Amino acid sequence: MLRKSFLAAALLLAAFPALSAPAAAAPSYSLQALRDAARANHPSLEAARALVEAGRAQVTSAGAYPNPEVEFLAGRTHARVPGASTGGAQSLAVTQRIDNPWQREARLDAAGFGLDARQAERRGFENDLLARLEQRFFELLRRQAEVRATKEDLSLAEQIRSKVAVRVDTGESPRYELIKADTELLNAQKSAESAVLRVAQARAGLRALVGVGLPVEFEVEGSLTRSPVVPPLDDLRAEVLARNPDLARSQAEVRRAERQLDLERLRRHPELALKVAEDRDSEMRNSRIGVTLSVPIWDRRQGPIAEAGALLAKSRSEQSAQELALVQALETAYRQYEIARTQVIALENGILREAEAALKVAEAAYRFGERGILDYLDAQRVFRAARNELIAARYELQLAVIDIERLRATQ
């Protein structure tokens, strides 16, 4: 049993260089290269761009002038009194509705603000997509750091097991120390296997966000130790309220709803059309020109006006809710950034160094027989816990910065 576990650990340790180091044939991508690939290949972004094109088409439709109406009638005249002429008769009429300039302006404004809303929606979707891509990118870096850490743990556990086996065989140590060393080796082996699987899972998640253009096997270029500069909270709040695409979309929807309400009110006014007509029969030709007026007596458009007013109130409420949600999300992300930064500083400058120093002391004491294996293993666990906390804290710091950048729309 012990030989099998020892052999499995040795095989896993031998396989680690291929798992943790970049493969020779696997391409390597920086974060910016992955972002560019996602912009070019992700199908959801193509759908968002198509919606923007649909908004431009609506602006074109809003600017179109009404088409003329042509009416042609043909028939025959029949005499009702003796001596009257009979023969063919035709009637031609052309009616051109006059586009109300105030209605046209309101209609164009409503369509233009609708286009602004769709463009902001497209920017917001792209911003969110790139933020999730960055999260997956740093998650992969975190998992790779965990693989390297578990590789060190497994190598150390294998060395300890070998040393303990020698001491047990020579009678210098009791047999329970070998059992304890085997247990630690099995735990290290389990952690190593889990870390390798998490790397594959993180790589697949990143590939799903980039698109099919990314190969199945690839590596990333980056580091968890980057320290981006984040402005003060007050500056961030003003920047978010000025640049966030979700808020820009809400503001455009409010302006669109305002102009739509103006348009519905303007449609209560009479509509004018110019009409030219000509009648011909076997004896006479009659030409006429005049106007046609549509008088809003029965339909005062009370329903459309009330509906547009309700939609305007809804848009304004959504804008206020969006502003509140953005400010709260920014404050939460900033507090998380401060917490993670404090943890990283504490772990880098104090806790990890002390745990590493304690591990070296315990290792020396065990080597000279001053301490037992339990003290040495306890010191190892403390060091591993501090190291894993540092990896997690660096990852949480990157997530907080990504969330702040997403709200600032700096993706």
Automatic annotation (TrEMBL):
SUPFAM superfamilies per the UniProt record, alphabetical: Outer membrane efflux proteins (OEP) (SSF56954)
Presence of keyword Secreted: no
One of the Pfam families matching this protein, by short name: OEP
Top-level taxon in the UniProt lineage: Bacteria
Signal sequence, renumbered to the chain: 1-20
Key words, A-Z: Signal
Gene3D superfamilies on file: Outer membrane efflux proteins (OEP) (1.20.1600.10)
Single GO MF descriptor: efflux transmembrane transporter activity
Family in the record: Belongs to the outer membrane factor (OMF) (TC 1.B.17) family.
Protein known as: TolC family protein
Protein species of origin: Zoogloea oleivorans
